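call fold(seq) -> tokens
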Amino acid sequence: MNSGKSAEQKKRTSAGRRPAPAGRRVFRPDPGRYEKTVYRTCGRSGLKLPPVSLGLWHNFGGVDRAADGRRIVLRAFDLGVTHFDLANNYGPPPGSAETNFGRILKADLASHRDELIISTKAGYRMWPGPCGEWGSRKTLLASLDQSLRRLGLEYVDIYYSHRYDPETPLAETASALIQAVRSGKALYAGISNYPPGPTETIAALLRFEGVPLLIHQMKYSMFVREPESGLFGALEAGGIGGIAFSPLAQGLLTDRYRTGVPADSRAAKPHGFLQKSEITPERQETIRALEAMAQRRGQTLAQMAIAWVLRQPVVTSALIGASRVEQLESNLKATENRTFGESELSEIDGILGI
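ret:
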């Protein structure tokens, strides 16, 4: 009797999933992946994030090798990284990082969805016209639907307003984040790149409606110290967690640019944000001095830079990128030495001329 099943249907596994394509290894995560990581509570919430999270701002777009991105994501998960950070415009081209990550989720991580914290954002230009950017309800809610389709998800864990919009009332931006959470399309609300005053205002608006502001994502590194002037105080007072992006200053706080600009570096890419003009002889001298200090601490410069960011009590997690698995593995070791003496902090400030 003919069962009516096609040959392709018969190939399905007993779990109802298609077998991995020929030559593609089935991913089975390390069963000990949670044993060595101490997760940190985000603000006054119950959500715990890894001390180092993986950002997909660079190296996961349509111009990059998808296989490389997959290896980095899966190795990160193997090493206890549960938080993966995206935005609608990450690529290039815009949207491609979400699409590529969605494929990894479907092929390799679908059965682990409840272990993952997946975030995305809207606010920078994504499509033509006045609704393609900033912080209106139209922009934020339309973008969220687009992101969910690209990711292949019913919800994201954290949804951010990606930047402060001085022309849209904060009450309107807050209402969009509230609707995203109440609709079940996001579990938590976040903001990014907001000054201290607007941070306090939107936090109060969200709190009043029973949707507390979970997290603020800010640019923070040894070379970018602005959050220390008011923002960290606002986050602490409001019980809001912080997550620092670009803790390595787009790669400047690594050993890559000590003597020049390597051909395969981020600064050499035509679509990168780090410009060759930023790598001055004076900056290289600073990098070499910081690297010498890191070596005395038994760390690479990148590891010390990440640990330095994590020393701030309000910073729940440091958000790093990676172009190679080896780079990821090395940078995650930053958590092995996060303690700084006062003399070390003073030495760093002296090297930076602060």
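Residues 42-251+304-342 form a domain with the TIM Barrel fold (CATH 3.20.20.100).
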